[in-house]
Amino acid sequence: MSCLLTDGRVVDCRNSIGGIKAIYFHNYKDLPTQAGWTLNAGTNLVTDVQTAAWSVYKFEIRPELCELDSTLQSSLENGTVFYEQKLTVTFHKLTALDEGVVRLLAYGRPNIFVEDNNGNVILLGARNGMHVTTGSMKSGKAFGDLSGFELEFTGKEEEAGFFLTPSVSASNAAYPFDGLTTDPTIVT
Fold first, then answer.
1. CA angle, residues 143, 147, 150, in degrees to nearest 5
2. Residues 51, 57, 63, 66: what is their CA dihedral angle, to the nearest 10 degrees?
3. Nearest to residue 89, comparing CAs of 140, 119, 132, 51?
């Protein structure tokens, strides 16, 4: 792999916003080794994930409660570079059912698709999965305090994240996986 730059970058318009719209969990697979995994010509833009039927589990979230941070980690001494992917989520309301789901998330290492407020869908933990590294079940003191779960997922990958191909039809923009060749079934 060459380390020489081939493109520059211009200052873009100020027309994007922060925040996450929804999170989709996929039971762990080393997705790039699957038969249907396709990257678009040297970019981190994915055009297909799998050829067989597959499912993702959608978790709706409240605005301004979740955060994605993919931090470049570099060691000059060892000649290594990787990204530490971190996703922090908050789920409102304590229920026995949700506690069981949180436990399963902590036991596993899911691949996570994050849909942001700009229409991007970013895949985290593509090769190694994401791990719950900390979490808490909370019920605050005051009536206005959080009653729910807070979780932090981390992963270590070669890429900051993979972007899924943008939706191909504006009429189906509500379906975030529209640009893929093989659509997953979304379970809510």
1. 140
2. -90
3. 132
State both tokens at 20. 């996450």
Q: Which amino acid is at 103?
A: R
Interval 52-103: pLDDT, tens: 788 999 999 998 999 999 999 999 999 999 999 999 999 999 999 999 999 9
Dist. CA 112–CA 154, nearest whole Å: 11
Rounded alpha-carbon distances, angstroms, from residue 61 to 49, 115, 117, 159: 24, 11, 12, 25
Sole residue written with tokens 């979780």: 151
Model's pTM, two decimal places?
0.90
**Rounded distance, CA 116 to CA 17, Å?**
9
Name residues whose C-beta falls within 8 Å of residue 62's C-beta, 6 or more positions apart in sequence.
90, 92
For residue 70, list its beta bridge partners: 85
